[in-house]
Amino acid sequence: MRWIIVGLGNPGMEYSKTRHNAGRIVLEVFRKKYACSDWEYKKTYDALVSKGEIAGTEVLLLEPETYMNDSGKSLVSLVKSRDQAAQLIVIHDDADLPIGSWRSARDRGAGGQKGIESIIATIKTRDFYRFRVGIAPEITSDAPRRKAGDFVLEKFSVEELSIIKSRSIGIAAHLLCAARLERHVYMHHFVRNLKQRAHCLVNSFSNPPTIWGIFFAEAHDRLHHA
C-alpha cells in the first residue's frame, strides 16, 4: 500500500517563497524530517519526486512542475481509481486561514482552490485528504486591499516563513495519522510503562519517525490551536 503526498505550488525559484507555494514548503519540511530521498524530476509525471518508507509503508512525495492551475496533470498516471485516490494526501495554501493555522478534510469541494479543482477534474473524485495551510497575514485597519491573485504570489516575510515551517511538524504528525501509519505501533507502545514512554518521547525528536513523536507533536500542535 503506497501513499502519495502532494505539495501544491508553482515551479521555479521566483515562486519558491510565495504564499501560493505553502504546500511545497510544508512538504519539503516533511521530506527532510522523515529522511525521504532527494528530489528527482520525473518526466512521466512532470513533477519532482521523492521516495521514502515510514513505519514499513511506502510514501511517494510529489511536487508538480506544472503551474498551480494544472496540478492534476501530474497525477494522471498515478491515481487511476477511487482506491488509489483514497491513498492521496494534498497539501495546499488557504487564503482564508491566518498564518500559523491549518485544517484537514476529506471528500470536500475545491473551495475555489485552482490546484484542487484541477486534481478533482483529473482523478474524477474528491474523496482524498486535503491539508489547508493558512497564508493570510494579520490584517490592520489601515492595510490596503489586495486582489487575491496578486496576494497569493507575494513572498512570505522572514517571520511568516519561520511560522509556516515551525507549524509543519504538527501537519506532518497529522499526515501520518491520516495515513494510519501509526495505528498498530501505537497500540504496542500504549501498554508500556511510563519510563519507556518518556524514553521514546526523548528519542522521537531526534530519530524520526516514532509513534510517540507523532503523538506528542500532534498534542502540542492542538494546544497551540485551541
Summarize the structure in words.
By secondary structure, the chain is of the alpha/beta class. The longest helix is centred in the last third of the chain and has 21 residues, at 158-178. It has a seven-stranded mixed β-sheet with strand order 2-3-4-1-5-7-6, with helices on one face. Helices cover 37% and strands 22% of the residues. A hairpin with a 4-residue loop joins strand 2 (40-42) and strand 3 (47-54). Residues 182-220 and 222-226 have low confidence and may be disordered. The protein has two domains: 2-168, Peptidyl-tRNA hydrolase (Rossmann fold), CATH 3.40.50.1470; 183-224, no CATH class.
Q: What are the salient characteristics of this protein?
A:
single chain; 226 residues; alpha/beta; Rossmann fold; 7-stranded mixed beta sheet; 8 helices; 7 strands; 37% helix
Short précis:
The protein has helices spanning 22-33, 82-85, 114-123, 148-151, 158-178, 183-190, 194-204, 211-224; strands spanning 2-7, 40-42, 47-54, 57-64, 88-98, 102-106, 129-136. The chain has 226 residues and is an alpha/beta fold.
